[in-house]
Design a protein that fits this description.
Distance between the termini of chain A: 33 Å
Largest interface: A-B, 52 and 52 residues
Radius of gyration of chain A: 17 Å
Structural class of chain A: mainly beta
Strand order of the largest sheet of chain A: 2-1-6-5
Oligomer: homodimer
Number of helices of chain A: 2
Shape of chain A: globular
């Protein structure tokens, strides 16, 4: 449905996602229990529709240029507990419960954001791994779309 | 610094953001205390450098095509408590404490994600406002870069 006014877009009750020139919107998945940001991915209209209709997170893989049912090969399905959209309807926030081994990242971490940026200045910045977001039981396969 | 291997990019300790063709990466800001996702925005290299060096969130305004010090006009500065980067270094997660009136959204809400997507199917989906993320004391000015 098209939205003709900024007020309707921002304050209304009509879902009217604003896809970018590639037909995508940003999707942020957080863990429904811990609140940790698990991953940032992209959705096209089909992925959003399937996410809402099935209750399982679907994304659009930019590297593969195809619909991506999260966990389709890894078993790391994401059960959607809650879905939100932001003020200008170009970003989606999903609260999910990861299935399978409970990880969300292809590196074997519970979250893709397992590294902290350290140091107060750019030149001094380096990354440190956060054990709390790394699964001690997983290897690190290299299929970015697991 | 350039990263030459996927392993170094994903498992290393070198900050090497992968900006898109527009020179931007996605930034997700969550509330350091509540864990709520406050906003999704974009950063260019300058915005990320300033965020890390000043401890205040800086973004790149795509609508204004310029650096955007969050809260520069609204007072809704975001004090950065923690910064993380994801596995393939194309998304940043900031844990922040909003300053000023404590809101993050130009609509006067504490979070830009003040609307839930209701309904189990696309055709049945509509939006409902979440009072918990809406400040009862704010009007809704229309400057998207406040």
């Amino acid at each position: 449905m098209s939205i003709t006014t900024e007020a309707a877009l921002e304050l209304g009750s009509v879902l009217a996602p604003r896809y970018d020139t590639n037909g995508l919107i940003v999707a942020v998945a957080t863990h429904a229990d811990s609140g940790d940001v698990l991953m940032v991915a992209w959705m096209n209209e089909e992925a959003l529709k399937l996410t809402l209709s099935t209750g399982e997170a679907h994304y659009f893989s930019r590297s593969r240029s195809r619909l991506w049912r999260k966990g389709e090969s890894s078993g790391q399905l994401q059960a959607v507990v809650e879905a939100r959209i932001d003020c200008d309807q170009d970003s989606v926030w999903l609260k999910v419960r990861p299935q399978g081994d409970g990880c969300a990242c292809h590196t074997g971490s519970r979250s893709c954001f397992y590294r902290l940026i350290e140091g107060g200045s750019w030149s001094g910045s380096s990354l440190s791994r956060d054990g709390g977001l790394i699964s001690p039981t997983r290897s690190t396969p290299h299929d970015p779309q697991r």
